[in-house]
Amino acid sequence: MEAGSCPAAQRYSPRPLTNGERWTADELSKLQARRYRPAAWVAFLRSSLKRSNTNRRERPVMARQARAWGAGGAVAWGVACAAAHRRGDLRLRLIPGLVWWFGVWRMLDWHLGMAEGGDGDPRERLSPADAITLARFWLVPAALGTVRSSQGLPAVIVLGGLSDWLDGALARRRGRTRLGRDLDTTADLAFVTTVAIAAHSAGRIPPLGFSVLIGRHAIGLAISLGAVFGRARRPAIRARPWGAALRISGIAICTTGATRPGTLLLTAGSIIPPRSTAPHLSPA
């Protein structure tokens, strides 16, 4: 892995960058230089699709693996929907769930080039940690379909929390990749936000805990998007694992009917600030 030598790479991150990160830094710099005009976005998307097609051709094993996972998730969703018809409190919707899962698979397929370690070495296959992260995406429509169930929704939330812990443990054992890092963050945001909105609309999370959680997510998303598209830099914040555990536990407890202790945990977890991942540079 070579250190980033161009100004765009140096601005993106002071750390040495992988090939994929240098490409990202260069494209973001071009987008910023063109002031985010529609033509600039078209060029950005065209370049992204071209790189995605190249990565897919260069990693046929990983591409086939991603397609197999996508097909397996679709079949599993169909089976879950069929089983849910036996219970009146479960309303899993087949078509919306398949549309969501197709979008998740396309996102994965588009970003196969990000499956590279911090040393810049491309991975040959998706990892077990990636599979667990995708399972958390899969649970998003399941949360919507179980929102009226006294047992179903808490169970889905617990499964989502366990998947967050497990994929982190597996990733640390094998070595994190850029793909795994960004998939994990996106899955967390999609799952927790969906669960919170659905449960609040059903009256199962009080306004205080809901507002603090959504406010946290909105601020974090604004900071990350501002870093990437405003300054062409890699976001330098990361949620603390124990804070995430408090938030998930709080939501789950609220949905069981114990709203007071659940709200306390949810609020406490939501006000815990993220940790900085920016490198500490020694003074010259």
Major sheet attributes: 2 strands, antiparallel
Structural class: mainly alpha
Pick out the low-confidence regions.
none
Provide the residue-averaged pLDDT: 88
Total count of helical runs of at least 4 residues = 11
Provide the CATH architecture of the largest domain.
Up-down Bundle
Order of helices and strands: HHHHHHHHHEHHE
* CATH class division of the largest domain: Mainly Alpha
**What share of the residues lie within helices?**
over 70%
Task: Tell me the overall shape.
Answer: globular
Number of domains: 2
- Rg from C-alpha positions? 20 Å
End-to-end separation in angstroms reads: 24 Å
Can you tell me the CATH topology of the largest domain?
A: Four Helix Bundle (Hemerythrin (Met), subunit A)
Strand content: under 5%
Question: Can you summarize this structure?
Answer:
It is built from eleven helices and two strands; from the N terminus they run H-H-H-H-H-H-H-H-H-E-H-H-E. With 284 residues, the protein is an all-alpha fold.
Task: Describe the 3D structure.
The protein is mainly alpha-helical and 284 residues long. The protein has two domains: 58 residues, no CATH class; 214 residues, Four Helix Bundle (Hemerythrin (Met), subunit A), CATH 1.20.120. Helix content is 71%, strand content 1%. Strands 1-2 form a two-stranded antiparallel ribbon. Helix 4 packs antiparallel against helix 5, helix 6 packs parallel to helix 8 and helix 7 runs antiparallel to helix 8. The protein starts with 6 loop residues before the first helix and ends in an 8-residue tail after the last strand.
